[in-house]
UniProtKB/TrEMBL annotation:
Signal peptide: 1-17
GO biological process: proteolysis
Protein name: Aspartic peptidase domain-containing protein
UniProt KW keywords: Signal
Family of this protein: Belongs to the peptidase A1 family.
Pfam families per the UniProt record, alphabetical: Asp
Length: 401
C-alpha cells in the first residue's frame, strides 16, 4: 500500500511538469525536517556565549573540534567551518591556538588523504587555504560527529583575541566544502536536517560586550521574553529557483528592506535593480563584517538628513560626534532603531583629511555605496533564523517590549 502511494505521488509529480512547480514549493526549502520515529533519540538545544572582538569587528563563540576548544568568529555570509592547523606558520596563524595535526585525535577522519583543497577569500582581500577533513564538532552542548571542516595551512586573515577560525552560518549554497566533499553539509544545516535539534533554528544576540549568545534549536529566553513579538520576514530566493535546479534557492540571509528613517523622517529605499527585485530593496545580514553598506542613492539621502554630515572618502561619510539623531530600518511590519551609540565608531582623529569647523567629527559605522545591499550589523541586534526567516532588534529595551 505504501509503495503504491509513493509511486502515485511520483507519477503526479512528473505529470505536473517542470514549469508548474511554484517557486514556493516545499522542495525549495533549505532545511528538510525528517519525521521522527518513536525510537529516535530525544532532540536537543543549546546556548553558548558570544563575545565581541577587541577591535569590535567580529563576534566569536567557542566550539570543540574533537577534544580541543577553539574560538571561532561567527559569519552569516559564509557557510564553511575552518580552524588554523599547526602547520600554518604565517604570522597571522602563529598568533593564535592551532589545531594540532600531530595530536592524532581519535575523532579525526581524513578526507581524500588530506588532498581535497580548501580555499576562502574575504571582502577585505585576505585569503585562507588548507585541506578538508572531518571531525566531531561540539557547539553549545550539541555534538555532530564527522562534520566536514577545513584545516587551514596558509592564511593572512586578520586573527585577534585567540580566534582560530570561522564558523559559517550561511546557506549550503555558499559552502565550498559541500561542493568538494560528497554528502557533506555545513554544520548548522546538517544539525537541522538530521533532526537533532528541538527546532530547526538558531538565534543570535549580538551586544557591545561579552553578553551575547548563540542558541541552537532554541531562542534565548532572556532575550526573547515574548515569542509572539518576533517579526518573521521572508528570505529572498536567488536564481536558479524551484525545479530549475536541485539546489535550494536560498543563498544569502537577505530580506526586503521596506524603508529607513533618520530622526523620524521616512525615506523609501530606491532599488538599484528594480526590474530584478520587483521594486524591492534587499538587505543582507552579515555578522562577519562590520558596517552598514547601501547604494549611493540611498546612503546619500540618509546623510542629507544629518546636520554636518560630510562625504570624506570614496563613498564614506563622517558626522559630528555630538549627533543625537536615531536611524531606523524597517523590515516587514517592524521597525528597529539605532541610537548614535550603536552606529558611531568614534572620533575620526586619525584621519587628517577630515577637517571640521568647531565640532568634532565622528565616523559612523562605515556607510558606503556598494551594490544594492544595506547591511546593518552594528550595535545590539538579535536574529532568529528558521526555515528562511529572520528577526532583528537593535536594543534590548526595544526588543519584545
Ligand atoms: C592527514 O592528516 C592527519 C592529521 O595531520 C594525519 O594524521 C594523517 O596521517 C594524514 N593523512 C595522510 C594520508 O596524509
Ligand atoms: C593576503 O594574501 C593575498 C594573496 O596572496 C593578497 O592578495 C592580499 O593582498 C593579502 N592581504 C593582506 C592584508 O595581507
Ligand atoms: C553543557 O554540558 C555541561 C557538561 O555536561 C554542563 O555542565 C552544562 O550545564 C551544559 N550546558 C547547557 C547549557 O546545557
Ligand atoms: C506577547 O505579545 C503579544 C503580541 O504583541 C501580545 O498580544 C501579548 O499580550 C504579549 N504577552 C505578554 C505576556 O506580554
Ligand atoms: C538533479 O538531480 C538528478 C538526480 O540526481 C540529476 O539527474 C539531474 O541532472 C540534476 N539536475 C540538475 C539541474 O542539477
Ligand atoms: C515598479 O514601480 C514602477 C513605478 O511605480 C511601476 O511602474 C512598475 O510596474 C513596478 N515594477 C515592478 C516589477 O513591480
Amino acid at each position: 500500500m505504501l509503495i503504491h502511494l509513493s509511486l502515485l505521488s511520483f507519477l503526479l509529480a512528473s505529470a505536473s511538469g517542470r514549469g508548474l512547480i511554484p517557486p514556493s514549493s516545499p522542495i525549495t526549502l533549505p532545511l528538510r525536517v525528517l519525521p521522527r520515529d518513536a525510537n529516535a533519540p530525544p532532540t536537543v538545544s543549546g546556548i553558548t556565549p558570544v563575545k565581541i572582538s577587541s577591535d569590535r569587528q567580529t563576534y566569536f563563540a567557542v566550539l570543540q573540534t574533537g577534544a580541543i576548544s577553539f574560538r571561532v568568529a561567527l559569519d552569516t555570509a559564509s557557510a564553511d567551518l575552518w580552524v588554523v592547523g599547526s602547520t600554518c606558520s604565517s604570522s597571522s596563524c602563529a598568533a593564535v591556538p592551532r589545531y594540532p595535526l600531530a595530536f592524532d585525535s581519535s575523532t579525526f577522519e581524513a578526507v581524500n588523504n588530506n588532498a581535497t583543497v580548501f580555499q576562502a577569500s574575504y571582502a577585505d582581500g585576505t585569503v585562507a587555504s588548507g585541506f578538508v577533513a572531518k571531525e566531531s564538532v561540539r557547539l553549545a552542548n550539541v555534538t555532530l560527529p564527522g562534520q566536514a571542516f577545513a584545516i587551514v595551512t596558509d592564511s593572512n586573515v586578520t586573527m585577534l583575541d585567540d580566534v582560530s577560525g570561522i564558523l559559517g552560518l550561511g546557506f549550503p549554497r555558499l559552502s565550498s566544502i559541500s561542493r568538494s566533499v560528497a554528502d557533506s553539509m555545513p554544520f548548522f544545516p546538517s544539525l537541522a536536517q538530521q533532526g537533532i535539534l528541538d527546532y530547526p533554528l538558531f538565534g543570535l544576540s549580538l551586544t557591545n560586550d561579552e553578553s551575547g549568545s548563540l542558541t541552537l534549536g532554541a531562542i534565548d529566553p532572556t532575550i526573547v521574553t515574548n515569542v509572539s513579538q518576533i517579526g518573521w520576514n521572508k528570505v529572498v530566493e536567488f536564481s536558479p529557483v524551484g525545479s530549475e535546479s536541485n539546489a535550494s534557492s536560498y543563498l544569502h540571509w537577505a530580506t526586503p528592506l521596506s524603508g529607513f528613517s533618520v530622526n523620524g523622517k521616512h525615506i523609501s529605499p530606491l532599488p538599484t535593480y528594480p526590474k530584478v527585485t520587483a521594486n524591492a530593496s534587499l538587505a543582507l545580514f552579515d555578522i562577519g563584517f562590520s558596517g552598514i553598506f547601501g547604494p549611493y542613492q540611498d546612503v546619500d539621502r540618509l546623510f542629507d538628513q544629518i546636520n554636518g554630515a560630510r562625504l570624506v572618502d570614496d563613498g564614506q561619510w563622517a558626522i559630528p560626534c555630538d549627533t543625537v539623531v536615531p536611524l531606523s530600518f524597517t523590515f516587514g511590519q517592524q521597525t528597529y532603531t539605532l541610537e548614535p551609540t550603536d552606529y558611531l565608531i568614534g572620533p575620526a582623529s586619525g584621519n587628517p583629511e577630515i577637517v571640521w569647523h568647531g565640532r568634532g567629527p565622528c565616523l559612523p559605522v562605515q556607510t558606503v555605496s556598494i551594490g544594492n545591499l544595506v547591511v546593518p550589523s552594528s550595535g545590539r541586534f538579535t536574529q532568529s533564523s528558521a526555515m528562511g526567516s529572520m528577526q532583528k532588534s537593535p536594543h534590548s529595551s526595544d526588543f519584545m517590549l
